């Protein structure tokens, strides 16, 4: 058993999330966490909404609300959507908690003390007519990288690159159109060059990463520059240094605060669990001798897996490890760990590629989008989870089309897995009313062969999930389903109508139901909602696949209350074959999946075109 941190990318709370988002970070991290728990590991899965930064403030200004009000609105929407998908977070929180502020400031101070955060004079914008600082969000101009003509002072929404206002071509104030004046101003920078060696050593010890992620990360190290980590902005975490703490116009940059969320959410989870130090099992792991963590920062039994889309690799494979190393005092300037101790670096950065929609990039403004909420109003969560696992953007950009969604749902889920469950449970219920016994004459070679295929699936599918090859993993689980369907067709138990044939019919159905039970366990990390239903159809009781719950909680340090996702995942099925007992009553058969009418394809395409 090891302690496994599943650190899931933080959705940005400036609007509802679409299915492209959850296919990148949400479903893959849940499949992994569910499997690891079933296999006996102690998993902590954390995330939350990312609520600071210019885009939230800009959107709030446009809507005539405060940034906090806007964040409250979308935090709740996102919590409800992730709940609807059955994502089993131990804690899904947010970046506006007082706990998060305190942890961000602790990391900032620790890194500053160790010399990895340095002040630097840079050029900042002021309004020539008022002489006041012009915040980043009020500056607009042409992106120097892609030529987009409404890039903002801190970021280009077209190409996604981070910018400084002074980089913009033809910058203009959004307030009155005047050209801002650039004057010297002080900001803090993360001294990445002082951390380059430790990052390189750490990357050199990484195993099993997707090659493109490792290559991309190594290339980033070749040209590391100090990076600004404060901005001219009012909405964010204050800078915890004398002379800066009370300044209303300077804040810690949103990307610095958001990545620290993995740690602050772990600490919040521990504080809420009644053991405030419990987070350390996942972050300050000791090596096998019980000493300090090994040189790469990853202790003996603690593992940290980070899940995100590819546009966020840099934050997880360079920036976040740099912050952790600087805080722990491990760069070229040395230093001492702060009160949180020496912190583990990621074991693996698991990045997915992009999902497109009917051949186009998802875009809320161009309405090439389907929001999670709208999807879940019309279709089942497991239908989407199945599509993402079987056909999602695991290692290539992948297109979501309604035709393919329909085909996967109807031909694979309904006609493959659903049909196997249905016909074996119905036939056994009708002829025996319970799990039938095995004929004392014993099992045939075909019976044994099928049972062996299902049993072997536990090692194969489990290993593939542990190595983040979920597409192959669900393919292997569905291969067991296909074998079982073939077995039923060949054995044709429905032809064994005579009284003399009944013992053999019972054996065939017993074998089929045992394989249904095993395949159901293999599919549980992918399809938890239907796995619970299949478990009950087989006469099982209690929780098979635990589900998250939404709880309204008080801020631990006196801030406003908010909703979190959490759950008790210590219950539920284990990753093993459980022998079915003959005589156990079966539930009344009912379909597990919904067959979709082909007309949904045209209906959905018409919605996109509207
Ligand atoms: Zn651009």
Major β-sheet annotation: 5 strands, parallel
Give the spatial strand order of the biggest sheet: 3-2-1-12-13
Q: What is the C-alpha radius of gyration, as a whole number of Å?
A: 27 Å
- What distance lies between the first and last C-alpha atoms, to the nearest angstrom? 52 Å
Helix/strand/pairing category: alpha/beta
Beta-strand residue fraction: 5-15%
The low-confidence parts are 287-299
Ions and ligands: zinc ion
Number of strands: 18
Number of helices: 18
Q: What oligomeric state is this?
A: single chain
Helix content: 40-55%
**Mean pLDDT across all amino acids:** 93
Outline? elongated
Descriptive overview:
- With 610 residues, the protein is α/β, with parallel strands linked by helices.
- The chain contains 18 helices and 18 strands.
- The strands form 6 sheets. A 5-stranded parallel β-sheet has the order 3-2-1-12-13, sandwiched between helices. The protein has a 3-stranded antiparallel β-sheet with strand order 4-8-9. It has a 3-stranded antiparallel β-sheet with strand order 6-5-7, with no helix packed on it.
- A hairpin with an 8-residue loop joins strand 17 (549-553) and strand 18 (562-566).
- The longest helix has 30 residues, at 402-431.
- It is elongated.
- The two termini are 52 Å apart.
- The model is unreliable at 287-299 (pLDDT under 50).
- Bound molecules: zinc ion.
- Zinc ion (ZN) is lined by residues 143, 145-146, 148, 151, 156, 158-159, 161.
């Amino acid at each position: 058993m090891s302690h496994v941190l599943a650190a899931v990318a933080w959705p940005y709370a400036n609007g509802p999330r679409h299915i492209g988002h959850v296919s990148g970070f949400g479903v893959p991290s849940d499949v992994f966490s569910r499997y690891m728990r079933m296999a006996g590991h102690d998993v902590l899965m954390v995330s939350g909404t990312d609520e600071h930064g210019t885009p939230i403030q800009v959107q709030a200004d446009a809507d005539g609300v405060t940034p906090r009000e806007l964040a409250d609105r979308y935090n709740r929407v996102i919590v409800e959507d992730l709940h609807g998908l059955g994502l089993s977070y131990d804690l899904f929180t947010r970046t506006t908690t007082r706990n998060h502020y305190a942890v961000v400031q602790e990391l900032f101070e620790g890194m500053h003390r160790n010399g990895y955060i340095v002040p630097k004079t840079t050029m900042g914008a002021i309004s020539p007519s008022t002489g006041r600082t012009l915040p980043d969000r009020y500056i607009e101009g042409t992106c120097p990288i892609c030529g987009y003509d409404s890039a903002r002072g801190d970021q280009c929404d077209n190409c996604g690159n981070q910018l400084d206002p002074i980089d913009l071509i033809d910058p203009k104030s959004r307030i009155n159109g005047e050209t801002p004046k650039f004057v010297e101003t002080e900001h803090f920078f993360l001294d990445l060059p002082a951390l380059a060696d430790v990052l390189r050593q750490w990357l050199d010890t990484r195993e099993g990463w997707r090659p493109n992620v490792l290559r991309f990360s190594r290339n980033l190290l070749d040209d590391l520059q100090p990076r600004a980590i404060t901005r001219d902005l009012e909405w964010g975490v204050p800078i915890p240094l004398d002379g800066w703490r009370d300044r209303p116009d300077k804040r810690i940059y949103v990307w610095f605060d958001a990545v620290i969320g993995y740690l602050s959410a772990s600490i919040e989870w521990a504080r809420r669990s009644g053991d405030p130090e419990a987070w350390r099992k996942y972050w300050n792991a000791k090596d096998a001798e019980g000493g300090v963590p090994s040189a790469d920062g990853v202790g003996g039994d603690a593992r940290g897996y980070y899940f995100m889309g590819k546009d966020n690799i840099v934050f997880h494979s360079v920036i976040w490890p740099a912050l952790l190393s600087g805080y722990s005092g491990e760069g070229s300037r040395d230093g001492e760990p702060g009160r949180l101790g020496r912190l583990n670096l990621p074991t693996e950065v698991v990045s997915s590629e992009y999902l497109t929609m009917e051949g186009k990039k998802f875009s809320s403004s161009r309405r090439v989008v389907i929001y999670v909420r709208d999807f879940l109003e019309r279709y089942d969560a497991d239908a989407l989870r199945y599509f993402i696992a079987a056909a999602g953007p695991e290692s290539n950009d992948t297109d979501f089309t309604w035709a393919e969604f329909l085909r996967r749902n109807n031909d694979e889920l309904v006609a493959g897995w659903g049909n196997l469950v249905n016909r074996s449970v119905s036939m056994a219920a009708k002829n025996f009313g319970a799990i039938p016994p095995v004929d004392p004459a014993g099992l045939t070679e075909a019976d044994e062969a099928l049972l062996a295929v299902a049993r072997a699936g536990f090692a194969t599918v489990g290993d593939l999930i542990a190595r983040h090859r979920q597409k192959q993993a669900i393919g292997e689980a569905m291969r067991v389903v296909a074998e079982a369907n073939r077995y039923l067709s060949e054995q044709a138990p429905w032809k064994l109508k005579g009284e003399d044939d009944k013992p053999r019919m019972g054996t065939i159905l017993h074998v089929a139901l045992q394989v249904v039970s095993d395949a159901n366990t293999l599919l549980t990390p992918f399809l938890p909602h239907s796995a619970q239903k299949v478990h009950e159809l087989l006469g099982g009781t209690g929780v098979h696949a635990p589900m998250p719950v939404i709880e309204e909680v008080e801020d631990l340090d006196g801030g406003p209350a908010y909703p979190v996702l959490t759950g008790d995942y210590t219950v539920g099925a284990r990753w093993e074959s459980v022998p079915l007992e003959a005589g156990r009553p079966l539930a009344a058969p009912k379909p597990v999946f919904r067959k979709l009418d082909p007309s949904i394809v045209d209906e959905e395409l018409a919605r996109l075109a509207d």
